[in-house]
Amino acid sequence: MPNLIILVSVPIFVAVTLQYLYRNFTQDRAWNHIPTHEFEDGDNSRDRYVRDLKDLLESGYRKYSKQGLPFKVKIPIGGYSVRYRVVLPKDHLEEMKHLSNNTFSWALASAVIFAQDFTGAPPRGPWSGKALRVGIHQNLGDITKKLDQQIDMYFGTHLPQNSSMIMSIRFMDFFVPAIANITSSLLVDERLSSNPEWIQQTCDFAVNRYKSADDVRAYPPLLAALVAPLIPSVRQLRKSRRYVKEQMTPLYEDMKMRQNSGILSKEKCRKGAFGFEWLWGGAPDDVTLDDFSDTMMRTLIASIHTTAKTISVALIDLLSQPQYMDELRREAMEATEFDGSIDIEKLFKMDCFLKESQRLTPVFLLTMNRIVTQSYTFKVSGTSMPVGTMTTAATAAIATDPDTFGIDSNCFDGSRFQRLRLSNKAGESALKMGMATEDSLGFGLGSQACPGRFFAVNQIKLMLAKFLTRWELTLEKNGQKWLGGRPKYEYYDFSVVAPAEYGMLLRRREII
Ligand code: HEM
Ligand SMILES: *[C@@H]1O[C@H](CO)[C@@H](O)[C@H](O)[C@H]1NC(C)=O
Ligand SMILES: *[C@@H]1O[C@H](CO)[C@@H](O)[C@H](O)[C@H]1NC(C)=O
Ligand SMILES: *[C@@H]1O[C@H](CO)[C@@H](O)[C@H](O)[C@H]1NC(C)=O
């Protein structure tokens, strides 16, 4: 019997391996016309790519993109079904930013990057981005007011309220549940957002979507399919997806019923108070429960971890460089109304500080990831992209380009964007935090840019303003006061590593 198993499995294994090698061979040839960029010192190990991608992209960008040429870098991480990332120069991004997903598919790219076939993470659907963008755009004033109140409530019950009590928090441990709670209270209905189990699950899957993808990609593609169902983070993610569906069922059925009986118009939904209504307002009439609940799960995944990392990095940047503290605190106090709410329009210096923080430490080194589904030849360079090419934008490398930002382009300057904006009144608004331009790709660019970016930016500004006005803050690393200056942030593949060792000590200020 064991002999029979060996007799059958060996040829299958050999056939699969040969097919895999053949595919890699033909793949390599199809991309021969695009130069490959490697580490110049010759160490091109997997670990090097995982840890040092930022430097590799920066040197590649300076070498090739400056001459208007795309270049490619290897993806040495298992589990990806593509072998290269093709990094496009800025003018190429401009050309493709509005091309439909039928040529440059973000849905496929997202499936590949998040190893979706293996992890069972919900897919990036075609209608949700626009639905969310329209909903947030139409209701931003109300959203900001509600965010302000929810943050007050959350900080009021989770942080010290008098000067005799001090408290130490770790950024990620604090922000992930805080943002899950606050974001949930705006995106799903109150029944769910007040349910501790829902918040717990939301925190879990927001983190687990990334973890499960990393766990799967630790294996080569051939093994990943076999191993995935056994990986704990993957099992947890699949369970969460079923949980979200269960919880969304009554909400979905209620909306469906009201829509069928004519009480509910799409127009009214788009002006609703909650994210699930905006989504419904932009969903196809025959949207299924699975599609709707997956969309909600993806939206929460897209919003929580990204926002938590961005505000953690911003706080580390600020508290490790105390020279910026006084002016930002003064501005935040001046923006505070009598009822404690914040007028975020007045947070000009904070906006500039956040923009600088994101410029140097974006959550993602690469954005605008796409997979080419119909061969395309760029008009700007004549370079052809065969079917199956993964294209991307070197977000961090572009944001540290000395031709754009000067010789100190790799140094932190909290006033940089103040100067840029004050000296360029006409182009001023394009330099605001959250605006997507070809020099500022942290939220993507064009029709597929992050639909939640102003939601995120306003939430971050409100939280920071409240921290600054109400508490004295001391930066800590592993629970000890940190005096080491602005730390070097680490990346894992193309995502910033959550700065989990950092946190802060809070002591309530007497005067507000
Ligand atoms: C600072 C925090 C955030 C960052 C850095 C960020 C960044 C991004 C980026 C780079 C993309 C991909 C754009 C592309 O394909 O070119 C994206 C997509 C998306 N973002 Fe954000 N985002 C943040 C917060 C949010 C928030 C708060 C929401 C929701 C309220 C949100 C919802 C989405 C959605 C729905 C997508 C579409 C892709 C998908 O379904 O996975 N994001 N975001
Ligand atoms: C592009 O989007 C459409 C819906 O807008 C979808 O049906 C199609 O599958 C997508 N194509 C690819 C290649 O992702
Ligand atoms: C969310 O935070 C509020 C305070 O703002 C709290 O009353 C509520 O219980 C929290 N929700 C959950 C589910 O923990
Ligand atoms: C300060 O607040 C804590 C809880 O936040 C409370 O236990 C304590 O009694 C308060 N102390 C004073 C002096 O009000």
TrEMBL record:
Residues reported in the UniProt entry to bind heme: 450
InterPro entries registered for this protein in UniProt: Cyt_P450, Cyt_P450_E_grp-I, Cyt_P450_sf
Reported cofactor(s): heme
Keywords: Heme, Iron, Membrane, Metal-binding, Oxidoreductase, Transmembrane, Transmembrane helix
GO MF annotations, alphabetized: heme binding; iron ion binding; monooxygenase activity; oxidoreductase activity, acting on paired donors, with incorporation or reduction of molecular oxygen
Transmembrane segments: 6-22
Family of this protein: Belongs to the cytochrome P450 family.
Protein name from the UniProt record: Cytochrome P450
Source organism phylogeny: Eukaryota, Fungi, Dikarya, Ascomycota, Pezizomycotina
